[in-house]
Amino acid sequence: MQWQIHVSEIVFTFTLFILTKIETWRAGLLLNGGVLKLNFFNLIYANDYSNIIVEDFIIQCVTMSSDVNKLAGIETSAISLLRRAVELDSSKRYDEAVTCYQEGLQLLLQVLKGTKDESKKEKFRNKIQEYMARAEELKTHVQQEKEDGKYHEQIHIDSGSLGNSYEKLFSRFLDERVTCVEIEDPYIRSTHQVYNLLRFCELIVKLKCPVKEIKLLTSKEENLQAQDQQHQKLGHVKQGLQKHNIDLDIQYSSTLHDREIRLNTGWVIKIGRGLDIYKGVDKFAVGFCDFDLRPCHETTIDIFHRKNIKENK
């Protein structure tokens, strides 16, 4: 009788333990987009505890399946980035190509680490070596051209294209040596154009460049009321930048036509449309806040160094 009581206590304790694990498993497991339903209660009530080993095996399979899917997703992203790198490389947009090569290689290294198949691992190793060699070659080439002042990059943006945020286009040149930025753009007047300026200034703040001064040269609105509104909007931008120890110097010109950004490091960024390269979208549409998702107007951007201009004169 005493022996039977001990057995009952053991079964009861074990049952509580299993039930606790069930709740954890049920809360966290997903299989093919649906909840994995484990029939533990039937097993327990039937006193068939041995079958729980089978269920535990299923859980391990689900975990393995999740890891495989995650690895496949990383591989897809790596392939996409490396294809983009090759496209940029072919278009002689070498600086951007280097960035894509580096990001794609980081992802491909993760795939290599998680791959068990030796033949696939060898394939990934060969590809990594190939892309890494090209990235290093381009990086050296770009660095040498920058040092010589001969670097010239032309970016053509197609109408409706995506992935052309200010950060993607210009962050490469906003480094730790930039202390002054000059912006010449006759159309920083209407609300959306002032927002464009603000987004560019936010990028400077976000990148933590040691910029102390931003010089803006633009044109005035046509009537006095619109001019007052323009001045107020730009004044708000100026006040916001002062909180980050950046002074915005605003000047106006009635004859200004060219659109370019000049950095004290010597880089000149000429934009056909100035900062106004994005198409208008609804305030609640995807792309309103994230410029990488905002469709663009067609335009051309030329990036070069002032040293190259002096040498060519």
From TrEMBL:
The keyword Coiled coil applies. Keywords: Coiled coil. Residues 121-148 form a coiled coil. Residues 71-149 form the MIT domain. The keyword Coiled coil applies. Signal peptide: none annotated. Pfam families: MIT (PF04212), MIT_C (PF16565). It comes from the Eukaryota. InterPro entries: MIT_dom, MIT_dom_sf, MIT_domain_contain_protein1, MITD1_C, MITD1_C_sf, MITD1_N. SMART domains: MIT. SUPFAM superfamilies: MIT domain. PANTHER family: MIT DOMAIN-CONTAINING PROTEIN 1. This is MIT domain-containing protein. It comes from Patella caerulea.
